[in-house]
Amino acid sequence: MKHKIAVITSALFMAITMTACGASEPASASSVADSDKAAVQEKLNKQDSNTETTDEKTEDTSAESEVVSEAVTDAAPSENEPASDGNNILVAYFSRADENYNVGTIEKGNTQIVAEYIANEVGADSFHIETVTPYPADYDDCCDVAKQELADKARPEIQGGVENMEQYDIVFLGYPIWWGDMPMAVYTFMDSYDFSDKVVIPFNTHEGSGESGTYSAIASYMPNAQVLDGMAIQGKTAQEFSSDTQQSVRDWLDGLGF
Ligand SMILES: Cc1cc2nc3c(=O)[nH]c(=O)nc-3n(C[C@H](O)[C@H](O)[C@H](O)COP(=O)(O)O)c2cc1C
User: What per-residue confidence (pLDDT) applies to 29?
Assistant: First the structure.
């Protein structure tokens, strides 16, 4: 228990008040900047014109869509099929089930819940960032592994991949805060693709740290992408208060013009 508290109150986020335990906390979806909305609109317009072009194509298109379906190796929400019309929005997320802080043992990770809401709302394809070596199911053990990986700046290997990343103009990137940072596998993911000219929209769950500076860290890590302000939601809220969470996601996406 002492160890658990130590994780959540680590020096990395001592500045943040820990008010989260046991309470439903609204998402910190702040007002969306006009420039962020404009960036999304530009990419959505591109999708519209691509769809029109795709509609004009013949058999070639169905061959392409099979590739799209295979390229995203994790099932999208409700096992929905990736869009067959050259969908240009991807939701890529890291999320871990099993034992976690403040929620007990869970079947679906907090971030995955948010990721699925987003993918359903915008009709995106999904990719679950999972490491080849799974993290321990035990919370304390997982904290130890994660802490070591952070210290080592590890780049744990990811299962599968997004083979057709070039088709996506908008990438939502989701993750939990681990030790005041992203899980190192998210860095592996960022290292794996060229995000140039893509709009990258972060979102995260946490238990008190908020976004913990990760949005600007992502922007620095991929300087050729247009990284927007993201949305942070308390993990327990995502896990236990689904209608609040869905509403927060919807409001945020509305603000972005989806
Ligand atoms: C290894 C580890 C480290 C964590 N470090 C932090 C942290 O620094 N700040 C924080 O607010 N929450 C921290 N948490 C809590 C998670 O961010 C939170 O439970 C999140 O919602 C988990 O998302 P997931 O279920 O999608 O993996 C940590 C959890 C784990 C397992």
Answer: 52
Domain ranges, residue 52: 2-18+41-256
The verdict on residue 25 lying in a domain is: no
Please report the pLDDT score of residue 27 as a whole number. 54
Can you state the percent helix, strand and coil of the chain, rounding each to 5? 45, 15, 40
DSSP 3-state assignment of 31?
coil
Residue nearest to atom 21 of ligand 1 (CA): 235
Instruction: Say if 26 falls within a structural domain.
Output: no
Ligand 1 pocket test, candidate residues 21, 96, 102, 206, most atoms within 8 A of CB: 206
From the alpha carbon of 206, which atom of ligand 1 is closest? 17
Report which ligand 1 atom has the smallest distance to the Cα of 208: 11
User: In the numeric block, which tokens belong to residue 175?
Assistant: 């993750």
Secondary structure (3-state) at 29: coil
- Where the chain has pLDDT below 70, the residues are 1-30, 51-85
